[in-house]
UniProtKB/TrEMBL annotation:
Keyword presence, Metal-binding: yes
Protein source organism: Microbacterium murale
Keyword terms: Hydrolase, Metal-binding
InterPro entries the record matches: AryldialkylPase_Zn-BS (IPR017947), Metal_Hydrolase (IPR032466), Phosphotriesterase (IPR001559)
Family: Belongs to the metallo-dependent hydrolases superfamily. Phosphotriesterase family.
UniProt-recorded name of the protein: Phosphotriesterase
In-chain residues carrying the UniProt-annotated modification N6-carboxylysine: 146
Keyword presence, Hydrolase: yes
Superkingdom, natural source: Bacteria
């Protein structure tokens, strides 16, 4: 059943989502390091102003919704993002989840079923609480669940996060999106784990699929029902946009238009790849790159506006609402 989607500024019906960037970040920080080793490029108020400018420029390009996949492990601060959301015309969707690609933070390693501090899994309570009650004692509820595995594969800690995400999805219906290692065909193991846990794979986005040059791998993921995240446009240090466009067109030609979503995985500010580094090494890695560069290239390659509408409007809406 289709549902409305929570945003920082209220519930939005599926038809109100419009053009959607489904995998972005507003601010990626590290609260402990920020206190003990402040980053010289971080100025909170200046970064908030930059975020307002960035999201306002997206609105001018037709974007109506941005999904902020900043979760535990990436410095999520919904109060800070709420300051931005209150000042921009773009709707922002928050996420719950835990970015732990191999090992969980110490608290979770010691607290939970059968652990030193035995009891219910706090990850499950965190995820479900973020969705049903609100994040960090605010009224902002999560509209997506973000989890990760990387080169180490599904370690025991990662499997625990996947289990908590599955429990939250089955309780609430909120979709799951992943960080995957495309080079290791990591999306396959992610699908296997989530399917074993009872998650319908058509409620899952296998993130960073667009980094793969293996068409058979991508087709296999899509054939199981999941969406493929071509969500790193501009991120040239891990792959060329030319290759992403080539693989995207190959999938479109093979009939997978309903299984693809586009985005950048960009940030207004990220401590791990700060603005000075991005400016020098990946100058196109920003949230307007799709609209200024990539979509015109797709049009020039023969991709029509109806197809782009499905990629940018229809498919993200189906992911977020579970509807048609």
């Amino acid at each position: 059943m289709a549902r409305s989607v929570p945003t920082f500024t209220g519930q939005v019906d599926g038809d109100g989502l419009g053009v959607t960037l489904i995998h972005e970040h507003i601010f990626v920080t590290d609260p402990e390091l920020d206190v003990n080793m402040p980053h010289p490029e971080w100025d909170e108020q200046a970064c908030i102003e930059r975020a307002v400018q960035t999201l306002s420029s997206l609105y001018e390009r037709g974007v109506r919704t941005v999904v902020d996949l900043t979760v535990i492990g990436l410095g999520r601060d919904v109060r800070r993002v709420a300051e931005v959301a209150a000042r921009v015309p773009v709707q922002i969707v928050a996420a719950t989840g835990c970015y732990a690609s191999s090992v969980l933070p110490p608290f979770f390693c010691l607290n939970g079923p059968g652990l030193v501090v035995d009891g219910p899994d706090p990850l499950i309570d965190l995820f479900i609480g973020d969705i049903t009650r609100g994040i960090a004692r605010t009224q902002v509820r999560a509209g997506m669940i973000k989890i990760a595995s990387d080169g180490a594969g599904l370690t025991p800690d990662v499997e625990r996060v996947f289990g908590a995400a599955a429990a939250a999805h089955l309780r609430t219906g909120v979709p799951i999106t992943t960080h995957s290692d495309a080079a290791a065909r990591g999306g396959t193991a992610q699908q296997d784990a989530l399917a074993r846990l009872g998650v319908p794979l058509d409620r899952v986005v296998i993130g960073h699929s667009g980094d793969s040059l293996d068409l058979s791998y991508l087709r296999a993921l899509a054939d199981r029902g999941s969406y493929l995240g071509f969500d790193r446009f501009g991120m040239e240090h891990v792959g060329r946009d030319a290759d992403r466009i080539r693989m995207l067109i190959a999938l479109l030609d093979a009939g997978y238009v309903d299984r693809l979503v586009l985005s950048h995985d960009a940030a207004v500010f990220s401590r791990v790849t700060p603005p000075s580094w991005r400016k020098e090494h990946v100058p196109n890695w920003h949230m307007t790159h799709l609209f200024d560069t990539v979509l015109p290239q797709l049009r020039a390659a023969g991709v029509d506006d109806a197809t782009l509408h499905r990629l940018m409007v229809v498919n993200p809406r189906r992911v977020l609402t579970g509807g048609a």
